[in-house]
Design brief:
Elements lengths: L3 H11 L4 E7 L6 H14 L4 E7 L6 H7 L3 E4 L5 H11 L4 E4 L11 H9 L4 E5 L11 H18 L11 E4 L3 H4 L8 H11 L4 E5 L13 H14 L2 H24 L3 E2 L2 E2 L2 H31 L5 H9 L2 H28 L8 H27 L6
Parallel strand pairs: 1-2, 1-4, 2-3, 5-7
Antiparallel strand pairs: 4-6, 5-6, 8-9
Helix pairs in contact: 6-9, 10-11, 11-14, 13-14
């Protein structure tokens, strides 16, 4: 049996720690000791100076004590959650490289040196890919469908090329962790790592691995955890969640307004005031959603370290004054149009207004102009950085 004392002596003899194997653990008494033994065997068998950190995430079956008995450094993290456990493990890790692996024996610990080798060859983040090596009974039919769908959606939205975004075996250089600014508490932590690695431009590689049937009861909840992954992807993609829908609504609404004023007919029917109201609402709502998306994107670039060259170039060219000028022009245009309508109303002796279409258009301009004006201020506030 590998003891903690002998391992520390071996590590000291070989120099600084190179590898920290971090294992989150919640009631895994059946397997945790074997996970620790296999981790030490993989490290020592390949001459890798390292440590094994088990994060006890509130176990009630003595898992932490069992891990400590066979030489692991045990970190207690009472706030439950996959992400919480890993964040606690990262804080405790001392190795140059961190290898992440589950405590249910679903992954081969002999693969640890291969992940280390990828990092040695220049990768900053290494993902395992289980999809070509799923053993019988290792993955439910729902997960076989859901994992590729979620990974595909992540790749589409964030322009990544990760085949298995939710694989639990992965490795990362410890010195790049601060750049990722990870904060998710639950299973969505797996997606957040991939998204943030892409956003900050980490050199990422993949390794094909096998997935074995787990020992003990699964902690996963497919629908709840799937929703948490999807929710995180949407929150981290202002372009997909806000900017694209907002721009679409603005364009569609503008087209409807033009068709109404051009008195164009469709299938023999003309566009009336009710249609104009719909177009106006689309423009107003779309402008608001678009503004929210720009603010979200600015926050990611300015404060989360996201790399978006197109947004950065645009931000360098356009300043607060440009937005204020545009908002002012649009607002004044609406007020001028409204003033014309009021003048005609007065000229008609305060009778029937009869300018419903122009009134709707004027109101649309005023509302959108005000939105642009104040959104410009909000963008300017978000762009402020602490230079102390």
């Amino acid at each position: 049996m590998q003891t903690r004392t002998s391992f520390e002596l071996t590590s000291a003899a070989q120099g600084p720690l190179r590898v920290s194997v971090v294992i989150p653990c919640l009631n895994e008494a059946e397997t945790i000791a074997e996970c620790v033994r296999r981790s030490f065997a993989a490290l020592e068998g390949n001459g890798l100076a390292g440590e094994v950190i088990v994060v006890d995430n509130g176990s009630t079956d003595g898992s932490g004590a069992l891990a400590q008995e066979v030489g692991a450094t045990v970190v207690l993290e009472p706030d439950r959650g996959y992400g919480n456990a890993y964040l606690a493990g990262f804080r405790a890790a001392r190795g140059d490289y961190i290898v992440m692996i589950d405590a249910d024996l679903t992954y081969d610990f002999d693969e640890i040196p291969a992940f280390v080798g990828e990092l040695d060859r220049g990768a900053q983040f290494v993902m395992g890919n289980r999809m070509g090596g799923v053993q019988e009974g290792a993955m439910s039919p729902l997960s076989r469908i859901g994992n590729p769908l979620l990974s595909g959606f992540l790749n589409l939205v964030f322009h990544t090329s990760v085949s298995d975004a939710h694989c639990g075996m992965r490795a990362i250089r410890r010195d790049v962790l601060p750049e990722l600014r990870l904060r998710s508490s639950g299973m969505e932590f797996a997606s957040e790592m991939v998204i943030r690695a892409s956003r900050v431009g980490l050199r990422t590689s993949e390794l094909p691995i096998k997935l074995h049937a787990r020992a003990g009861d699964s902690k996963l909840s497919p629908f709840r955890d799937g929703w948490r992954h999807l929710r995180l992807m949407l929150v981290h993609s202002p372009n997909f969640l806000f900017i694209l829908p907002g721009a679409t609504m603005v364009v569609l609404g503008a087209v409807i307004i033009v068709l109404v004023f051009a008195d164009v007919s469709l299938a023999g029917r003309h566009f009336f005031v009710h249609t104009l109201i719909g177009g106006s609402l689309l423009v107003i709502i779309g402008a608001q959603v678009l503004g929210l998306g720009l603010c979200g994107r600015a926050y990611g670039v300015m404060h989360l370290g996201d790399r978006d060259p197109r947004f950065e170039r645009a931000a360098a060219r356009f300043h607060l004054e440009h937005g204020l000028l545009l908002g002012g022009i649009v607002t004044l245009g609406g007020l001028a149009l409204g003033g014309t309508i009021v003048a005609k109303w007065i000229d008609n002796g305060f009778g029937t207004l009869g300018e419903e279409r122009l009134a709707i258009l004027a109101a649309t301009f005023v509302i959108v102009g005000i939105q642009i004006f104040f959104t410009s201020f909000l963008l300017s506030i978000i762009a402020m950085r602490d230079r102390s």
